[in-house]
Structures are given as structure tokens and as C-alpha cells.
Specification:
The chain is mainly α. It contains 5 helices and 3 strands. It folds into 2 domains: 34 residues; 136 residues. Strands 2-1-3 form a 3-stranded antiparallel β-sheet, with no helix packed on it. The chain is elongated. It starts with a strand and ends in a 7-residue tail after the last helix.
Amino acid sequence: MKPLIICKSCGYVMAKSGLRNTCPACGVPAKMFEDYVDRVSPRRGAILALDIHPVLAHFPQAFVFTVLVLTCVLFTAEGAVRERIASALSVIAALLPFTVLLTFLGGLFDGRIRFHRVTTTILVRKMVLGSLFLLFSLGTLLIVLFRPLEAPHVLPLLLLVELGAFACSAALGFLGARLLNAKFPG
């Protein structure tokens, strides 16, 4: 294994052989680096370096935001533009629950690799929020598939469900960011 170093200013870890005059992440002088020993086994480190769950999480976050925006635009859109927006909304709403479920499963895998269990306080909180996010995304899909968007009260209901999904997505993102560099040694 290559010797590693860590920037004392920002925590960036890199191979010692790659160090130049400054930290590539924050720009401080190279004197701010010190030797670093990764406490994670090479096998687990390689799996964690794939960032499976963080990468997967971008899809439902983008989809839920897009569905929310498209729903808001539908309040004022008319004619052919409204039809196209409604079609796009239907497609993205159909994909949303699948991306949420895939990300949820990726999170369970990541938690197991990262912490050897998924019963920690933050991970349980993330599972509850993820379950709510999945329910809201399924609610979005059901509304879009089975309720005509022109019917009274459908758009406000869709907007309300989407705001719940968006809130879950945002909370999951904040919790996930706090865990990104945390991992159990070994």
C-alpha cells in the first residue's frame, strides 16, 4: 500500500508521491500535510471508494426536485406546453420510486460496509426518512397515473405530496453529508 498523507487544514487524503507544492483541494502549502494511516482495510476501502450510495442518491434528489418544479409550472401552463410538461412529469414520477428504492438498498449496503451494521442512530433516522421518501414518491406516482391533472384539487395535492418528498430528500442529504467521511476502522 502506498504511503498516504493528509492535509491538516481540510482533511484531504492522498498518496504521498502525488504531493506537489500545495494541497490540490484547498491550496495551502505542502508543509500542512502529515503522514496518514488509513484505518480501513484495503478491501473495504476499495468498496467505499466506489461511492455507490452517494452517487445513487443524486438521481432521486434530481427527480424529486424536477417533479416539484414541473408541478409548479403546471399551475400556469396551457395548451401544448401543458401537455408536454404533464408528459415529462409522468415519466419522471414513474422513475422516482425506483430510484428511491435503489438508493435505499444502496444505503443499506453502504452502512453495512462503512459501519458493520445499520442500527446506529443516524442510519436508523436515514432509514425512516428513506421509507417516508419512498411512500411520498409512490404517492406522487399514484396521483400522476390515476388522477387527471386537470381535475380540481389534484395539482395542490400533488404539490403537497411532492413537498413532503422534497423535505425527506433534503433531510437525507444533510444527514448523508455528515456521514460521508465517517467509517468504522478495520
